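Long-time lurker, first post. I've been practising inverse folding by hand and with some scripts of my own, and I keep getting stuck on stretches where the structure tokens seem ambiguous. Below is the full token string for one chain I'm working on. Before anyone asks, I'm not after the true native sequence, just a reasonable design that respects the backbone. If someone could post their per-position residues I'd love to compare against what I wrote down in my notebook.
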């Protein structure tokens, strides 16, 4: 068994030129694997206890180890996910997931399974764990580090609390101090390979969840600029894409905030070169960037300084077509929001004030709604009294959320009259100040 970089070749994203063709050059940068979190902000993912509800569509994916370590009482089992798409894909093909639930997941995730990078045969994408009490009544856990579905040979330990880790003088070091090495399978090139990776473990008693992360990232550099990269979610570049950070964007603590990291398809500006992030290829362990032979204002990208990607969707209430291109000549705020997102709803009164202070010849808001319960969406729009157009993200054939790389809410883009993105993630009174200032400048 060997230690390996656990990323896999992604489906490469593409940036679009507004017009014409270009001979872009792909640059391959060798990656060096590092243990720790580097410039990325420490975060955890929740790993729940097995459900007892046989009607739950996830029930058949429960991991049930043969036994727990001696001395552990009140034992409950659960699993740590490393690649949810692979787990669902193989679960469907093994009959553990029903066809109806499989279709619903594809629709909800806007996911078309890529059969070139997914295995129908079982791959060990999950890690079993047990949580219970020791003889002193303390919460202890055991991780199936060798992934053999038997915890009898595993050590029990008291997991640190998430609050304790975050409150420590050095959260990264505290997280690394609570790390075990685990075995999982990486599926690539048509075969599964066993690899060993570090797993940081914490516990949150109030939520009854085990919290975990994988403290590994990779580094490279271009024209003297240090670059860090890691999978964006779970452990698979294949299914989730990457998260990239430039060390130059780090704050005084050495961390790059969540809103300042990049993903596949984004454009980097390094040393005057515009570089589109293609992905990571672990066959040769390289980060692939494409040097763009066009200025920013001729490239479509969901980033400040680039052309906003065009879309055509249906207005939620009236059904009329809404085309972003039809709003050229005025400032436009794209407001991506979702049900169950309190910060999204809290923004509405501020946006309504701004809408009333501006004319439609100068400024427009377009709400982009995360697909959800249509009746609840209609009720939310009505109760909030939103007068601007609302478009369901999936009413455009390419899915507006996908085009703009949306994976958190709220997300906003302020677009200028020329179609170029002026600001991203501007919120609250900052939106009002910025828009009124821009409109005032134009009137002068």
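-- Answer (accepted) --
I ran through it position by position. Result:
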């Amino acid at each position: 068994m060997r230690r390996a970089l656990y990323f896999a070749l992604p489906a490469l994203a593409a940036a679009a030129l507004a017009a014409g063709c270009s001979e872009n050059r792909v640059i391959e940068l060798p990656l060096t694997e590092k243990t720790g979190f580097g410039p990325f902000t420490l975060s955890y993912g929740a790993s729940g206890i097995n459900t007892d509800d046989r009607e739950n569509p996830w029930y058949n994916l429960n991991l049930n180890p043969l036994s727990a370590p001696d001395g552990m009482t009140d034992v409950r089992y659960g699993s740590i996910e490393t690649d949810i798409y692979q787990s669902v894909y193989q679960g469907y093909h093994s009959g553990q997931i029903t066809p109806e639930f499989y279709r619903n997941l594809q629709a909800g995730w806007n996911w078309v399974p890529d059969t070139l990078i997914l295995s129908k045969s079982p791959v060990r994408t999950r890690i079993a764990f047990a949580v219970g009490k020791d003889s002193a009544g303390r919460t202890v856990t055991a991780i199936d580090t060798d992934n053999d579905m038997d915890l009898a040979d595993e050590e029990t330990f008291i997991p640190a609390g998430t609050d304790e880790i975050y409150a420590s003088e050095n959260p990264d070091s505290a997280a690394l101090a609570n790390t075990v090495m685990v075995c999982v399978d990486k599926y690539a090139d048509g075969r599964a390979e066993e690899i060993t990776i570090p797993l940081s473990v914490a516990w949150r008693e109030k939520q009854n969840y085990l919290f975990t992360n994988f403290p590994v990232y990779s580094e490279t550099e271009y024209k003297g600029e240090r670059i860090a990269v890691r999978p964006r979610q779970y452990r698979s570049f294949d299914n989730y894409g990457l998260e990239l950070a430039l060390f130059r964007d780090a704050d005084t603590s050495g961390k790059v905030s969540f809103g300042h990291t990049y993903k596949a398809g984004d454009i980097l500006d390094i040393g005057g070169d515009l570089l589109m992030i293609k992905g990571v290829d672990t066959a040769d362990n390289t980060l692939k960037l494409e040097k763009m032979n066009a200025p920013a204002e001729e490239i479509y990208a969901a980033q400040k300084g680039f052309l906003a990607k065009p879309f055509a969707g249906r207005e939620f209430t009236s059904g009329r077509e809404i085309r972003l291109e039809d709003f050229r000549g005025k400032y436009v705020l794209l407001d991506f929001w979702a049900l169950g997102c309190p910060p999204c709803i809290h923004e509405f009164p501020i946006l309504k004030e701004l809408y009333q202070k501006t004319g439609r010849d100068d400024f427009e808001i377009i709400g982009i709604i995360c697909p959800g319960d249509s009746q609840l969406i209609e009720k939310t729009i009505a109760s909030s009294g939103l007068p601007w157009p609302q478009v369901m993200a999936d009413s455009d054939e390419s899915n507006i959320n996908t085009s703009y790389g949306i994976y958190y809410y709220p997300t906003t883009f302020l677009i200028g009259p020329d179609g170029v993105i002026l600001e991203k993630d501007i919120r609250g009174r900052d939106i009002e100040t910025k828009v009124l200032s821009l409109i005032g400048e134009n009137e002068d």
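A couple of notes from the structure itself: Residues 342-357 form the longest helix (16 residues). Residues 26 and 378 are 46 Å apart (CA to CA). Happy to go over any region you disagree with.
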